[in-house]
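Sanity check

After download, print the first record. It should look like this:
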Amino acid sequence: MADRLTQLQDMVNQQAENFCNSIGVLQQCSVPSKFTGFERSGSQTPQQNNNQEDYAQLFATIITRCAKDIDQLIDSLPNDESSPELQVQSLQMLEEENRLEAERLEEVVKKGEELLEKIQAVLSDIAKHMIQPD
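Expected structure tokens:
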């Protein structure tokens, strides 16, 4: 579930970025408003951007696609109603797996200790024969 939550957070961040970028493009492409009594010297004709509708369509598509992805991620999250029972079952399964693995680990450690004792005995014999030749 943590991965889905991380994906959801990433998608929400992406959507926020999409909104910020779309507002930036709107500001870039918008026509300045004229206020009476505040005449501005210089060029009075704003430059028209022919791609303004293309940008609007592009950002509308990106934002709706991201919103659909967010909805899908939200729908994939576990349901609150069944969550406690599933968690209890999952914890019981994990406890059983841990118990079995602990038993296997104890067996491996026991075999390792027996093997270590054998190796130490052989090394001891080798040391005795090296010190006192027959």
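If your output differs, re-run the checksum step. Summary of this record's structure: The longest helix spans residues 83-131.
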